[in-house]
Specification:
mainly alpha; 9 helices
Length: about 210
């Protein structure tokens, strides 16, 4: 996959764009399509292809038109693009942990190697990391419904920052791919040789949280 398509939307057309792009109340939304060909998608492909033998991550990002004037527009666009691209790893029946999905995108939008994530959010990350560890096993709803949702995004990104800084860039992709491509967390643990709990504990120790 070499391209991510961006669709600008606004209240009058939101949810009506071809391909099903709808952003709603969010700043942006990654929308996945197993289309035959990116160039055909760009021209307005009418028929969705089956999954077998085709790239899974050909997709687009819906962005509110007003997002263009936001100071974090580039970060938002990058975050959602990472979601689209990471779908290449996903197994059909995988239950990828929310932290693994949002963490990769949060880490990526913070310009890996720049130190930006920890310099901006280090205090929040350290003060909320224990709460983050407790919500990780509980799934999507517990993660997003919490009053600490923003902090959980940052903590998730910090796990990948730990991997990047301590074990190298390949460890980031190996970990993300393991969680995306495994049907269960236990299967991901087997691939990686350590559990989520062990990974988070190592990240906490490195962060001095």
């Amino acid at each position: 996959v070499t391209k991510v398509f961006y669709a600008l939307t606004w209240p009058g057309v939101d949810g009506k764009l071809w391909g099903g792009v709808a952003v709603g109340d969010a700043d942006a939304h990654a929308y996945y399509h197993p289309f035959l060909d990116p160039s055909e998608l760009a021209r307005g492909q009418k028929k969705v292809a089956g999954r077998e033998g085709l790239p899974l991550a050909t997709g687009r990002v819906g962005l509110h038109q007003t997002s263009m004037s936001r100071p974090d527009f580039e970060d938002t666009a990058c975050h959602e693009a990472i979601h689209v691209l990471a779908e290449q790893w996903r197994a059909d029946e995988s239950d990828t942990p929310t932290w693994a999905v949002e963490g990769l995108a949060t880490w990526g939008m913070n310009r890996p190697g720049s130190g930006r994530l920890l310099s901006r959010e280090g205090g929040r990350i350290r003060s909320s990391f224990r709460a983050f560890e407790s919500v990780v096993p509980k799934g999507y709803k517990a993660f997003h419904d919490s009053k600490l949702e923003y902090e959980f995004y940052m903590c998730s990104g910090a796990v990948y920052e730990y991997l990047d800084q301590v074990e190298g860039r390949e460890a980031v992709f190996k970990t993300a791919e393991a969680y995306y491509s495994s049907e269960t967390r236990a299967a991901a643990t087997k691939k990686l040789g350590r559990s989520e709990k062990e990974l988070l504990a190592a990240a906490r120790k490195w962060l001095r949280a």
